[in-house]
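Incident review: delayed structure delivery

Summary: a single-chain prediction request sat in the queue longer than the usual turnaround. Root cause was a stuck worker, restarted by the on-call engineer. No data loss occurred. The affected request and its eventual output are reproduced below so the record is complete for anyone auditing the incident later.

Affected input:
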Amino acid sequence: MNSKNLYDATAEKYDDRHDNARTKYMRTVENKLIKRYASGKVLDIGCGTGQHMKYANVGVDISAEMLREAKKKGHDLLVQAKAEELPFADNFFDSILCIFTVLNLCNYNMAVQEIHRILKKNGIAIVSVASIWDHSKENLAKRLVYNKQSHALTMRIEKFRFRFFAFNKNDLIGLFEQNNFRLLHFKGIYMIAKPYWGWHRHHSLPEKIKLKTECFLEKILQPLNKSARMYFGVFRKQ
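Output delivered after worker restart:
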């Protein structure tokens, strides 16, 4: 089962599936990075239901059903395409967003080459991926000691199974540097907090306090971000 079929089948309930305080924490991080680094003509690759389309001029997604949900929200400049085959001219965009597991689910080498092709010189790419620790049960201390390698695995969401590539920090940075990008900023989240992927859940007051405390500690622990379950990178095209 490929990711297109997964998102086509789950598009109508995608926003509900991610309606929880822990995913909203991730969205806050995304928004801050976009506001700080994205400018000019912006493309959102893997725009889904339009979460970040308020910052983008054009949205691309592999799933027609996800784009249909985005269109319901009033977003019009939407294109169905694969991240590996983007229908845009060379040196066209000033900034590109590629957020929340797009690179985990596609041919990441081809996708990064396409990002480089359609970005202008000195253009900015803001990306995020699930890391090798995303589904790990190892505690923070063990994650800091282990030098776990990037690897592919089979994932399951509801009844769907698909291939998922998990990155370690060095390999994600290396992927972009090998394609003539320079790292400007790196951040990791879910070092202490854990994500609730696909889990609609209201948090009680004690849970909200616990999450706030975990998020505060993660800011202090940023030098240890290789142990995070989600990586964010901001890269400049050379």
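Verification: The chain has a mean pLDDT of 95.
Action items: add queue-age alerting; document worker restart procedure.
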